[in-house]
Fold these 2 entries.
Entry 1:
Amino acid sequence: MKRNKEEEEDEDPSMTQELQKQTQAHYDQYPFIEGGPNRIAWWREYLRDFLPDSSLRDRLVVDIGSGIGEIARGLADRGARMVCVDVSRQSLARCREINPEADIYHGTALSLPFMDNTFDCLICIGVLHHTPDCRKGFREASRVLAPGGIFVLFLYNWWNVYNAIYHAFKPVRTLMPLERVPRFVVRLLQPFAKKHLGQPLDDWQLRRLLGDKLWTPQASFHSIRQIRRWGMEEGLTMTGYKRFYLGYANVMKLVKNGAAENGGHRRVRVRCARWGQGPMTRNEATYACTCGHSYLLKEGIWGCMPE
Ligand SMILES: C[S@@+](CC[C@H](N)C(=O)[O-])C[C@H]1O[C@@H](n2cnc3c(N)ncnc32)[C@H](O)[C@@H]1O
């Protein structure tokens, strides 16, 4: 099996950028699936034991790689004040509709536009393994989480046959674009969707699911042991984990060491993702940095991608 990215030599930054662009383009064209009320309810209940009501009510919670925001919706319904970030603007346009009260940022998990210790809780479900540098994304997530804060992380499982399948599949995804995959192949995923989501998906949704599982430009795989070690390196303690459906992923709960302060009254504090300075000053539709850089609110989404 291919070794994980973070165990290898440093990547060429231009390759990393290129990979990130490809991933962004992929999810702009094929946002992750929209399951509607069933999927929102499923995730709302699934996360309950890792995120009890007391950790969410009136707390500032960020969903990194929110996609179209169905998981964020479930947490908002339980009383969380949600902030969503994603690299795909198309996904965020739908997230805006599903989460009218959330703060939404177009940005990358690898350079988050937030100050240190900003959030009470953080979720990152099925995202960091699609970035060119999962380790860096983990460090960023740990940085923006406040002491005592809960981090729920979903990552593909190193010890699962899916690891081998994803890598063996590379020649197919290179030769055949997702839009050319025949409909009958796409429909082979229907039993998986029905069993896991408890509902059938239409062909367009199934193609989005297939895209995420096999056509996405990047996927890395990680063991619980490795994430526990990363946690220790970043000052977080793993306090629990669950195997996800068929064991292809792990969902882990980490807590940032240190006592929680100011819980429940935090405000979003934004920093310049280009220079790391902040907090930036917010006006109605602008965040301004002393370096001259600014973020603009357009159609309800803050533009925070470094150029
Ligand atoms: C499998 S989807 C998961 C979406 C959502 N968390 C969910 O489970 O419904 C992966 C998401 O990660 C986003 N993503 C990929 N690379 C990213 C990055 N570097 N920064 C932020 N988001 C990223 C994609 O745009 C996509 O929306």
Entry 2:
Amino acid sequence: MSDEAINPTKERSTTSSPASAVDYDSWHRYVHRMSNQHTYSVPFSEEELRRDYDSGMTQAEVANKWGTTQKVVWRAMRRWGIPARVAAKRDQWGEANHMWKGDDATYKAMHHRLTTRFGQPQRCDVCGTTDRRRSYDWANLTGKIEDLEDYRRMCRSCHRKYDGKINNIECMRLARDGD
Ligand SMILES: [Zn+2]
């Protein structure tokens, strides 16, 4: 049921005024949205949603499976009183952080090797400071803790900033890939 069927002369007026076609589209979208609001039409049943979510899938994964958005899943869960799990980001982050630092024994052994071979760092390869009042570390760059090439001399301040940056990258990765 196009405009043309209702009114054959409409075609000409649409051509002269393209805005009316746009208006019709947005009106149609509006009606569609309103009807969805009333029926809460979702591509899954309450049982299917509960089963998927209880199996450990995230809201985003459930949405993906049913070809809808996380917001639709979230709204349906709220409507049906399905309690949302608290995201476990904190714990995961702890684990990732631990992995990043690697095995303590290996880490200590590597620092011993570096110090024996190259001495205790007395300058910073990042900011270039040689201030004797500062503390210096052998800082691991990319997590290859058994690779001597993966270490640089850094002052404590640059080391903290560097580790913070790496932690942020790791956090962003976790946030992106989700749980
Ligand atoms: Zn520095």
